[in-house]
């Protein structure tokens, strides 16, 4: 994993990078197999991301890369270890045709950008893409195409703008 | 304005708003739970937002269990257990240890959940509590950790898909067969961001331990909750099992003119036993379609079907019999009281004599951690809830999901067998209470 993280430690989803494309119904057991989730350490979890489904992922993924998937990404268990493993791997965002509910909440809570993008199936493995979160589009540089994504609901947008659930709760407790 | 669904009413009550599907609300949490996998991350969040020495929003309504890797199968698991014990002790929360059982069994048995409650669990099968008429839902560790401090969490009020079932189930057909059929019909993501509601005369006549099965697996169609309107049966069950007196005067049910995303109706008498083929719960077919499929391992247990009544059904089938020579059977009671009742009522002896291996109460091999992990090429027939690729072990193993009766019948022959071909029993809610000490 090369280090192209920003000063804040976060990768920037507006920087073009490689898309790792997965299919439908990729559940959390396939993202982070159960035997590894005794750890809560992002770097350790990253070493096992998609280990059974796509063993080359953890070795070859580079900081800033994207995960692209079909329908119902992150279904199954509530383990936050799954989005955390992607954060640890330096993945700068996940684009899917749809997400399972708990994974979607967990990703937002961890500050991992997620976009629901019905046209994501046009993206091929290895394409160079970036996410434009403000415009709500995914840009495919390899194919010179772009795909509309669903805007975050207003409530969630506001939560993200307030620094996410942790910052929001902290502020609430301090009041 | 049309009437409201049960889900809308429950979240209206807990948020103090007139909540409608699609609204975002902040709601007050009644009960919060995490276990040995999800707890440690939630504790980090709690410390981050509230500080090391902060108070829990309600220690008496906060529960931590040690069930997924119990007893510890490695140093990291053991350290996680200690983290759970330390956090619970420091903050005065309820804590259940190795062998006490699966979170969802423990919360119900110990009387932590009442109709109308809003229950969040850092475990996806927290939808189970819908079987008692509570809004139970699974959340991640950050959600849970912040709620432990604030006692509140945001929710999008879900639309509801209603599953309406009328008539009598055939002998050998159970709630597990109903839910596998529902999942097969709407699909693995058919209820995502929505609540499932189970209603109709069949559901009303189901004992509570069977309703819990329906609610438990709502998540296998993506459901945020799986609700059954609480009734006298619910109250009687909770009073008998927990000693808690239940007041149903304020209990909610959906209005007749409530708006549903969709309504699916079923004739119970037409339903055959269901089996979900590898590798997704939505691959539900009539048992007759897969009869004769050879099995290597049978697994009886989990938060779905590890209750006393479930294991008793299997024991009844195996009474005086032995497992087919080609199979092994792993039995994992859902709770310590189930384990104890198995000992006291001869179920333990029956299963052991038949050749089964009985383990301590907990999650067992359901998620492929330990206690019966599958190898390459293994085929397992399980009373579990998930059969994803590699879920119970090797990526080259295959898991079929079915009811305890189907698993019991199949154990006799070493291949998937229609339980309607043999004598099967059905139990009401009193059998477990009868053997309570």
Automatic annotation (TrEMBL), chain A:
EC primary class: lyase
Pathway the protein takes part in: Amino-acid biosynthesis; L-leucine biosynthesis; L-leucine from 3-methyl-2-oxobutanoate: step 2/4
SUPFAM superfamilies: LeuD/IlvD-like (SSF52016)
Keyword tags: Amino-acid biosynthesis, Branched-chain amino acid biosynthesis, Leucine biosynthesis, Lyase
Function: Catalyzes the isomerization between 2-isopropylmalate and 3-isopropylmalate, via the formation of 2-isopropylmaleate.
Enzyme Commission no: 4.2.1.33
Domain Aconitase A/isopropylmalate dehydratase small subunit swivel: 65-112
Molecular function GO terms recorded: 3-isopropylmalate dehydratase activity
Family: Belongs to the LeuD family. LeuD type 2 subfamily.
Presence of the UniProt keyword ATP-binding in the record: no
Region listing for Disordered, in residue ranges: 1-24
GO biological process: L-leucine biosynthetic process
Compositionally biased tracts (Polar residues): 1-14
Reaction(s) the record says it catalyses: (2R,3S)-3-isopropylmalate = (2S)-2-isopropylmalate
Tree of life domain: Archaea
Quaternary data: Heterodimer of LeuC and LeuD.
Protein name: 3-isopropylmalate dehydratase small subunit
Listed NCBIfam families: LEUD_arch
Automatic annotation (TrEMBL), chain B:
HAMAP family, alphabetized: LeuC_type2
Protein name: 3-isopropylmalate dehydratase large subunit
PANTHER family, alphabetized: HOMOACONITASE, MITOCHONDRIAL-RELATED, ISOPROPYLMALATE_CITRAMALATE ISOMERASE LARGE SUBUNIT
Origin species: Haloferax profundi
Biological process terms in GO annotation: L-leucine biosynthetic process
Subunit structure: Heterodimer of LeuC and LeuD.
This protein's encoding gene: leuC
Cofactor binding note from Swiss-Prot or TrEMBL: Binds 1 [4Fe-4S] cluster per subunit.
Associated pathway: Amino-acid biosynthesis; L-leucine biosynthesis; L-leucine from 3-methyl-2-oxobutanoate: step 2/4
Cofactor (UniProt): [4Fe-4S] cluster
Its job: Catalyzes the isomerization between 2-isopropylmalate and 3-isopropylmalate, via the formation of 2-isopropylmaleate.
Metal-binding keyword on record: yes
């Amino acid at each position: 994993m090369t280090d192209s993280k920003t000063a804040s430690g976060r990768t920037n989803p507006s920087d073009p990078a490689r898309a790792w494309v997965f299919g439908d119904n990729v559940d959390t057991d396939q993202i982070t197999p159960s035997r590894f989730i005794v750890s809560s350490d992002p770097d350790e979890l990253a070493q096992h991301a998609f280990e059974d489904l796509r063993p080359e992922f953890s070795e070859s993924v580079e900081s800033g890369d994207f995960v692209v998937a079909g329908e119902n990404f992150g279904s199954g268990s509530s383990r936050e270890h799954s989005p955390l493993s992607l954060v640890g791997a330096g993945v700068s965002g996940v684009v899917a045709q749809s997400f399972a509910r708990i994974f979607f909440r967990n990703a937002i809570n961890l500050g991992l950008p997620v976009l629901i993008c019905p046209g994501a199936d046009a993206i091929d493995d290895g394409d160079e893409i970036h996410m434009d979160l403000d415009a709500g589009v995914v840009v495919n540089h390899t194919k010179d195409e772009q795909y509309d994504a669903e805007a975050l609901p207003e409530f969630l947008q506001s939560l993200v703008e307030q620094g996410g659930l942790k910052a929001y709760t902290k502020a609430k407790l301090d009041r | 304005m049309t009437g409201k669904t049960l889900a809308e009413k429950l979240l209206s009550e807990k948020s103090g708003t007139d909540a409608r599907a699609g609204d975002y609300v902040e709601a007050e949490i009644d009960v919060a739970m995490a276990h040995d996998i999800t707890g440690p991350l939630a504790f980090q969040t709690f410390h981050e937002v509230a500080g090391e020495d902060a108070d829990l929003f309600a220690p008496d309504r906060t529960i931590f269990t040690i069930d997924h890797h119990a007893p510890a199968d490695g140093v990291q698991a053991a350290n996680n257990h200690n983290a759970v014990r330390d956090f619970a002790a420091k903050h005065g929360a309820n804590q259940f240890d190795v062998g006490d059982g699966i979170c969802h069994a423990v919360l119900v048995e110990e009387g932590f959940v009442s109709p109308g409650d809003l229950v969040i669990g850092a475990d996806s099968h927290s939808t189970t509590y819908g079987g008692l008429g509570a809004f139970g839902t699974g959340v991640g560790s950050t959600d849970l950790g912040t709620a432990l401090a604030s006692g509140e969490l945001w929710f999008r009020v879900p639309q509801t898909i209603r599953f309406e079932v009328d008539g009598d189930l055939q002998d050998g057909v159970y709630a597990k067969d109903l839910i596998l059929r529902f999942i097969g019909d709407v699909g693995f993501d058919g209820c995502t961001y929505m609540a499932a509601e189970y209603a109709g005369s069949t559901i009303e006549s189901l004992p509570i331990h069977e309703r819990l099965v329906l609610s438990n697996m709502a998540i296998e169609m993506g459901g945020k909750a799986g609700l059954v309107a609480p009734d006298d049966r619910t109250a009687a069950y909770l009073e008998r099992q927990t000693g808690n007196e239940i007041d149903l005067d304020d209990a909610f049910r959906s209005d007749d003119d409530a708006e549903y995303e969709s309504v699916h109706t079923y004739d119970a008498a037409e339903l055959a036993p269901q089996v979900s083929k590898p590798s997704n719960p939505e691959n539900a077919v009539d048992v007759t379609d897969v009869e004769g499929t050879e099995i290597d391992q049978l697994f009886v247990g989990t938060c779905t079907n590890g209750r006393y009544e479930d294991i008793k059904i299997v024991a009844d089938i195996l009474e005086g019999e032995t497992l087919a020579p080609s199979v092994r059977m792993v039995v994992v009671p859902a709770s310590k009281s189930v384990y104890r009742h198995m000992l006291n009522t001869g179920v333990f002896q029956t299963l052991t004599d038949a050749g089964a291996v009985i383990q301590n109460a907990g999650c067992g091999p359901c998620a492929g951690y330990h206690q019966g992990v599958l190898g390459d090429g293994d085929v397992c027939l399980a009373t579990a809830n998930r059969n994803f690729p590699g879920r119970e072990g090797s990526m080259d193993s295959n898991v079929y999901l079915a009811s305890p009766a189907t698993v019991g019948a199949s154990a006799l022959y070493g291949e998937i067998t229609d339980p309607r071909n043999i004598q099967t029993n059905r139990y009401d809610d009193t059998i477990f209470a009868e053997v309570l000490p």
